[in-house]
Amino acid sequence: MNKVFKALNDQTRREILNLLKEKDMTAGEIAEAFNITKPSISHHLDILSQAELVTSEKQGQFVIYSLNTTVLDELMKWIITLKDE
């Protein structure tokens, strides 16, 4: 859970998640939406992957990133249990 909070603590990573909410994208497509270097985008995607907030699948020479809502569902359930107790 700590990795999830670390990943969500950065504005760029939250914006990447918002992009992936709309559609699956390559790292290059994601990078086009930002004014930062591609290696920086790769770093953010790595942190999101480690937190299991995004999944990736290699298709030919490209890696396609997708939003993994399962982790978000688990996080929301946990937050709701805090309120209930």
Q: What is the β-strand count?
A: 3
N→C terminal distance: 19 Å
CATH superfamily: Winged helix-like DNA-binding domain superfamily/Winged helix DNA-binding domain
Integer count of domains = 1
β-strand percent reads 15-25%
CA-based gyration radius: 14 Å
Question: Which fold does the CATH topology refer to?
Answer: Arc Repressor Mutant, subunit A
Placed side by side, the strands forming the largest sheet appear as 1-3-2
Main beta sheet: 3 strands, antiparallel
List the total number of helices.
5
Uncertain segments of ≥5 residues (pLDDT<50)? Answer: none
Overall body shape:
globular
The average pLDDT score comes to: 93
* DSSP helix fraction: 55-70%
Q: How would you spell out the order of helices and strands?
A: HHEHHEEH
Can you name the CATH architecture?
A: Orthogonal Bundle
User: What CATH first level would be assigned?
Assistant: Mainly Alpha
What class would the helix/strand composition place it in? Answer: alpha+beta
How would you explain this protein's 3D organization?
The protein has 85 residues and is of the alpha+beta class. It has a single domain, classed as Orthogonal Bundle (Arc Repressor Mutant, subunit A). It has a three-stranded antiparallel beta sheet with strand order 1-3-2.
Give the secondary structure arrangement, pairings included.
Layout lengths: L1 H7 L2 H12 L2 E2 H6 L5 H13 L3 E6 L2 E6 L1 H16 L1
Helix pairs in contact: 1-4
